[in-house]
Predict the 3D structure of the following.
Amino acid sequence: MTMANPSRRRFLKVLGASGAALLAGRKKAEASETHQVNNETIGMLYDATKCVGCKACMSACKRVNSDYGSLSYEQAKFDPDGLWDAPQDLTGSTRTLIKLFKESEKQWSYVKYSCMHCQKPSCVSVCPVSAMTRDAVTGTVDYNKNTCIGCRYCQIACAFNIPKFQWDRAIPQIVKCDLCKNTNLVKKGITACAETCPTGAIAFGKRKDLLAEAKKRLQERPGIYINHIYGEKEVGGTNHLYLAAMPFNKLGLPILQDEAPAEFSEKIQHTIYKGFIAPVALYSTLCFIAVRNMKKHGAEQQGQEKSKAGHGEGGK
Amino acid sequence: MSHDDYQIHRAKIMTPSFIFLLTLTLIGFALIGVRFVKGIGAVSNMSDGYPWGIWITYDVATGTAIACGGYAMAILIYIRNHMHYHPMIRSAILTSMFGYGLAGFSVMVDVGRPWNAYNFFIPSKWQANSAMFEVALCVMAYTTVLLLEFLPAVLTTLEKTQWRTLQLLLDMLYARMGMKRPERIGDRLDKVKDLAAWLKPRLDKVLIFVIVLGITLPTMHQSSLGSLLLIASTKLHPLWHTGFLPLLFLINCMFIGYSIAILESVISCYAFKRPYETKELSGMAQIIPWLTVIWLSVVVGDLVWRGQLAAALSFDFYSAFFLLEFCLVAGGSLLMFSGKKRASIRWLFISAALIVLGGALYRFNVYLIGFNPGKGWHYFPALAELLITVGIVAFEILGYQVLVKILPVLPKLHTRQQLDDHK
């Protein structure tokens, strides 16, 4: 009896502490669950009306990032000598791409594809081993091939179909823009594509400055642009922003809701697995039922065995 | 639990079906070799738009549901306390073990950088937001649990074995080498036997906690297999994209589990020329329609609530696949509601097959058919890709066929009255 008291007190203490920890954890989780846009992060503004389709950004990207991103040149069918790099789409060797969308002789537009660097990225949310990460300060969504298992869930999750996989290699990896995080940005403080662009179609800077610039342009030349900054609100906001004279969905940029898909999926996953309470409760309840059933059954079986005593093999 | 509910099926291992399955397995594994040398693109039609093909859709998402026989039987026996089904559980666990083990193997074929998989065990890399993380850990844990659950069958055999084949083989080898066989090999073999005899009663004591873990883990990861597609809100067709995906996948794996247990029993009794377990099967079939009714109600209620009912009845491509899945499950359940049909092995087989097909089609719809990444992307599996899946399935059946002939897996005949019918 003398031992019972302190141990019980200790038990209560542990219980109280873990309860407090649970509460604290919950508060933290709730804070992170309501997604907030950070406009101090860095990104790019692509203005389709200024782009002349010279593709200097594409070649600069590949030149600067080829070694680091293990990018190779892609041959066109008409070019057996391999004189040009001719990617048809973003691929396992191409992180940025210029495309032309032509509706009629007067209605056409270039568009640049590369990672949108979402404020609440789906790829980061789904990666099972944290190979996709979002830098808390810069907002850059980066990929680490040394932890990636190659499951391609990021490709399933990305609403923009940005992450690309190297299907033709025995040792493949995911390829996507990382804002020259380890290459041009370190050396020159600007992404290679924005540095190279001869017409100023690609602006590089903090998200708040890019948004202000985009709003200014919309105000100054209202007749030219579609009155919308693509990426300002889409999927919770992206750091790669777009201005264009043609509807964005015609340029291959999908019409998306303001809520980040990752918020929806995480809400459900967190509800089921909050504090790991539900699985533990399920396991203990099932254990209780199963052990009770076994005991009942064991008693019955023993009764049966006694009644037919002499039968050689025992059940237990 | 009693270990003499089971018996070894005494029959020849080298049958024509064995050779046929072995051929398919070897072709599949040769193509897996090609995949590792030349990249995934060399054997599959997967693309950046459809990064998950038939391997994930069939081998993992559907294959593990089909391997839920062990899960469904464990609920029935240990939780709902129907101990008279106990003789059927070992074969169900064996198929589950193969299903899950090979699903894990398929994942290792499918992922691009499998050598990094150790990151699942490094806490700093854990990513609890990811349904994939949950599925991966749970499936690994459950495969271990299945191995433990199956271990008694191996231990019983080890305990009683005379090592006849091994002795013969050793004698032959030593004779060939012109040496005398040393005594200590026999001692070592005896030690293994002793260890098995020592381990078995101890395992028996804790086995129930392992079994209950084997019920908890599939509940978790089968629902998470549905959660995997929650994120694809812009790509998965609204007929299937719903917050209820985890619940629907969970109920779906349960009714597939019971139905597949029926199919497996009928097929193995037919193939091994044993009497059908009609009484047990029709009892089990009673549960299935209730599960499917709950499932179908959630499906329809959710469609009504999200205003997608018109889309479901529009008879376009997606609606057609939805209706097919719906009718297969509903049709099979209707048949199973009738007590008369349940008493007939033929109707049991047909209705269970319809429900498994419908339930599996649901998973195909969610992972592939209802998945549309945007304009310009198409997917249909390549021949080599299909042959790899076929090879893995063939290996599964092959392993089952061989193991029931060397380990006590199938229900012992004299424990049931059907023995009389058989005679």
About this structure: Chain B touches chain A through 67 residues (CB under 8 Å). Strands of chain B lie at 6-7, 410-411.
